[in-house]
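Possible regression after last week's pipeline update?

I re-ran a chain I had predicted before the update to compare outputs. Posting the input and the new output here so someone can diff against the archived version. Not blocking, just want to make sure nothing changed silently.
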Amino acid sequence: MVNTGSFLAALGIFGSAFASDVAIEKRQSGDPCAKVGGQKWVSPSDLRACFTSVPVDPVIKENIIEVINKTLAFHTSVNYQISAPEPFTEDVHEDLLKDLARISGQSYASDFDLHIDLSRTLKRLNDGHCVWINNCYDSLFLNFLPIPLVLLTDNSGAQTVNIAPEAFKVASAEFPDQVDVWQAALPENITLESLNGATVSTLDGKDPWVAINANALITGSFEGFGTRQNAFFSSYQRSTSTWNYIMGNFAQQSLPLSDSVTLEVQRVGQQDTDKITLPYRARIGTATLNFTDTQSWRNLNCKGADTSGFASNSSPDSSTSKTVAKFRQQPPTPAKSLQKQSLNVMLDSTPLTDVVLPPELQPASPPLNGSFGVGQFFMLDDGITGVLALGSFSGADFDTMESSLLEGLLGLKSMGATQLVVDVSNNGGGFICIAHFLHRVLVGPKSTSDPQAGLDTKARAGPLAQMIVKRIIENNTDPNVESLYNPLQWTNASDVPFAANFDWLDPPVRLTINGHPDAFSQRLGQECVPSGFTTTPPDEALFEGSKVVIVNNGRCASSCSLFSITMAKEEGAKTVVLGGKKDVQQEYCGTVGGQSTDFVTISSEIAAAGLSDNPLAPPPLMVNGVQGITWRLGFGIDNPDEPEEWQDHPADLNLPLTPELVNNPVAIWTEVVKRLL
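New output (post-update):
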């Protein structure tokens, strides 16, 4: 039996890890879910006993696998991801269809064990668009420690793993009702606050990098290994109302797989090391419907919605479930904008955090005119550097984002800014056309920004996708031009709009990828018509591309990647990754895609075309889950014949973080200017 108590052991769990524990727990307590029901905080072991008490239902298991399989028919990257091109061949080599067949035939001790295998199988794609999330388990409770970690660099260039200098302030503000629990676990001569900044020499008896690298193999979301290492550590993000603190994979987990962790640490100002053991504590998720026992847990949080009754003229995005919205890595966004605008945004099993960055680390000066929710404008003390902190490419009304971005950038120029720092730390994407608009506003009208400020793309042209297009053309099943498959939505590679009766998927472009035949649409051109912007971009550049620096911790995805790549590769913008391991290449973005979507949207497309009974259509999902996909895949800039997804994006600077810089946005921006501008 696998020991599930330690942090390191939990990183390797899958299969029948919990079988013996479950049987014992059920014999002793009857319904283990009654012990955690109605509680705000529980021990991970008690929550795990609840989760593992439910056996696999073979009907539900096969339903999940069928839904994933048939939704993947619309995922453009399936065959590419069997073995990605260099430099990501070692990072992406997952044959999903083969592994789903394995899972279908494999036995599991519990439904939870099945979920872990499904989740980690999809995460091996290292693609934040194509993930499997089950609301029954993922982030139902969140597993926390009070000691987020950071990677610091000293004056000699040596790097050490440390407890964040601000750890106690974060924990005491966010977990005031649990601080005493953690304090009681420490030796009498050690306070929780005294751990701030401590150097970590071992984690569960091994070098911390053993855990960091093991976590990088299962966390998913990004192709770059360095970016997945960085996910272990704490960071920050601008949200709609404040600056949020990202705890990192060590101090916050979406599943209750770790009970405790033992660290050997050297506290600041101390010569000797101390060995400490701290328990993880699981807190109920903010969107979890409270329950009292197994039946109420399953009924309230686990059952799937009926996806078979979408109206034939419903917008795909308007029918997106609350569960999809919960796990999208974007703040809540007005429904009218979601209905009208295309998205390219990550999904993650951990929803966006609401932990707050300590006030003393937030910018002290008030944001300038044009600032809005996720977008804040500042001027640095040098009088020539403007800053745009942009936590998402959505999270506000689309028109508001356009007008506010232009107002704020013009305001910076009027104050004397000649150079710009754009901080997109932990930006998971959003509206595709906001990425195009921001690019166009910054560099003015030129061949790389007008009419196409993004990437040409392609969609997958499977049999069912081709049927949807034919139904739209022949039967007028999309009179309001809301479908992703309506030819009126798209242009050809020369940016000429398709006619209403043009079948853009027939004939398909047939390719063989990693030995597998595949079919795609013709090349699609610009999708964000400059004349269609509700705010008119200026007729000249606001900043030279070489005077723009894009800053993040590598976790810039989807529309954030589309913006960063085109600015870096076409306009000469500089790129910075914060605090990565110095001997590992740092990618300034990942999970590029072209346009993302999900099972719910695909189901509504199929239903609107009257094809729900087609044997190729995925059935209604019986659980409250999310299967994401990359619906369109962008072509590259350096190699325009291949997807940009697996082309290289090395950062110009891997900025070493010190205690003075870490998680301090203004200090970081100032240092970036010194080094690059």
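Follow-up from reviewer: compared with the archived run. The domain at 142-234+245-284 is CATH 2.30.42.10 (Pdz3 Domain). Marking as no regression found.
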